[in-house]
Design goal:
With 220 residues, the protein is mostly beta strands. Helices cover 14% and strands 37% of the residues. A hairpin with a 2-residue loop joins strand 12 and strand 13.
C-alpha cells in the first residue's frame, strides 16, 4: 500500500483563459495570498507557486486574483490542458504544485510533494473533497468504499461487490468517511490532528506523513 504508480492532488477545474481556483486551505498552508503577487517556476510538466517573499531562483512574478490563477497559455497547450478538464493541485515543501498529469513516485520525491491538508473531526470523521471521490468514480454521498489500514495510513478503494463479496464496505456521507478509533490510537492521532490527502492509482490515501515519505526510495 505504500507504493503507487501515480500520485495526484486535488482536482481543480480549468475554466476560460486556462484559469483555476486555488483552494484556500492549501494556500494558507504555504502563505499564498488570495489576492496579490506570487512567484512561479514553470517546468515542463509542473508549475510551482511560491509566496512573493520566497528566495527561490529562476522564478517570475504572477498574480492571484480572488483566489484565481491563470495557467500560462503556452504551458497549458504543451500539457494539453483543456477548458472543462481538471488539473491537480498539491502542497509541496515550499509552496504549491500544479500538474495536468499525475506525478510518478520519483517526481513526488524530487518535488517534496505533501498532498492536500485535511483534518480529523469530532466523531472520528475525515472530509475528502467531492472532486477526489468523483475522480475515482465514487459517489461522495452514499457511495461505498473498502478501507485498508496501515500505521499512519488509510487507503480507500471503490467497493465492487463482484470483486469484494465478503469484505465489509464503508459508506460515504456528504464527502465524509469514518476512521476507526483503534487506528487513530495506533497511529498516535486524535480529533483535530491534521492528515495529508493524496490520490494513488488505487484510490485516495489519508496519511499522517507527507506523500513523498510514503513512497520508499524510487530513486534507487
Amino acid at each position: 500500500m505504500e507504493h503507487s504508480n501515480t500520485i495526484i492532488g486535488l482536482p481543480v477545474l480549468i475554466s476560460a483563459r486556462y484559469r483555476i481556483v486555488l483552494d484556500q486551505g492549501l494556500c494558507r498552508k504555504r502563505g499564498i495570498p488570495e489576492n496579490g503577487p506570487v512567484l512561479t517556476k514553470i517546468e515542463k510538466e509542473s508549475i510551482f507557486i511560491y509566496p512573493d517573499v520566497s528566495e527561490i531562483p529562476e522564478t517570475e512574478r504572477k498574480y492571484v486574483t480572488i483566489g484565481r490563477f491563470n495557467l500560462p497559455a503556452l504551458w497549458a497547450k504543451q500539457n494539453r490542458a483543456r477548458i472543462g478538464r481538471y488539473a491537480f493541485l498539491t502542497v509541496t515543501e515550499s509552496g504549491l504544485q500544479v500538474r495536468m498529469l499525475p506525478s510518478t513516485p520519483r517526481q513526488c520525491l524530487q518535488n517534496r510533494v505533501y498532498g492536500v491538508p485535511i483534518r480529523i473531526y469530532a466523531g472520528n470523521f475525515i472530509y475528502i473533497p467531492k472532486a477526489f471521490w468523483f475522480h475515482y468514480g465514487i459517489q461522495p454521498d452514499g457511495g461505498n468504499v473498502v478501507r485498508e489500514e496501515a500505521d499512519e495510513l488509510l487507503l480507500f478503494r471503490k467497493f465492487r461487490s463482484e470483486l469484494f463479496p465478503d469484505i465489509l464496505s464503508r459508506q460515504i456521507h456528504m464527502g465524509k468517511i469514518h476512521v476507526r478509533a483503534k487506528w487513530m490510537r495506533k497511529s498516535n492521532l486524535a480529533v483535530g490532528d491534521a492528515l495529508w490527502l493524496y490520490g494513488t492509482s488505487e484510490g485516495p490515501v489519508a496519511s499522517a506523513r507527507p506523500a513523498y515519505e510514503n513512497l520508499g526510495d524510487p530513486l534507487t
